[in-house]
Design goal:
- This protein is mainly alpha-helical and 144 residues long.
- It is built from five helices and no strands.
- The protein folds into two domains: 88 residues, no CATH class; 55 residues.
- Helix content is 75%, strand content 0%.
- 9% of the residues are buried.
Length: 144
């Protein structure tokens, strides 16, 4: 149940952050805004690290699949693409497309067993669920 609420909170925070970042971008620039997001996130992580245990940072160099250390780089591109999409599509449309993209890519990752995930069998009901979500976007975007 905790995972369910964490996912709901994550989605809500991502939408709010996207709106905030888009507004900062309008008043500064894309790279200034994205840089601020990453820098402020780093500061929060450092503070949390100081107060919650101080595990060894050198453990990062022991990570087996080094490509997984690119999460921060990907995070920078996520910030930039969320800002751009929300600025041009609006928060609701952008969030819906982002979620659909996440669903499709996550399902492909599961199907292929990529990046160390457990390979899952193909299920038509999951594809149907994604099709319903895509239909929802079409209906939401539909203009008279």
């Amino acid at each position: 149940m905790l995972g369910f609420f964490a996912a709901l909170l994550s989605g809500a925070l991502m939408s709010i952050q996207g709106v905030f970042n888009t507004e900062v971008t309008k008043q500064t620039s894309l790279w200034v805004s994205a840089g601020w997001v990453q820098l402020s996130a780093f500061a929060v992580c450092v503070l949390a690290w100081f107060f919650t245990g101080r595990e060894s940072v050198s453990a990062l160099w022991q990570v087996e699949n080094k490509y997984t250390l690119l999460g921060g780089v990907i995070g920078a591109f996520i910030t930039i693409t969320v800002i751009r999409s929300m600025g041009s599509l609006g928060p609701a449309r952008a969030a819906m497309l982002i979620v659909i993209s996440q669903l499709i890519v996550a399902y492909v990752i599961e199907l292929m067993g990529m990046f160390g995930t457990e390979k899952q069998p193909f299920e038509w009901r999951k594809v149907l669920g994604m099709a319903v979500a895509i239909a929802g976007i079409v209906i939401f975007k539909w203009e008279k």
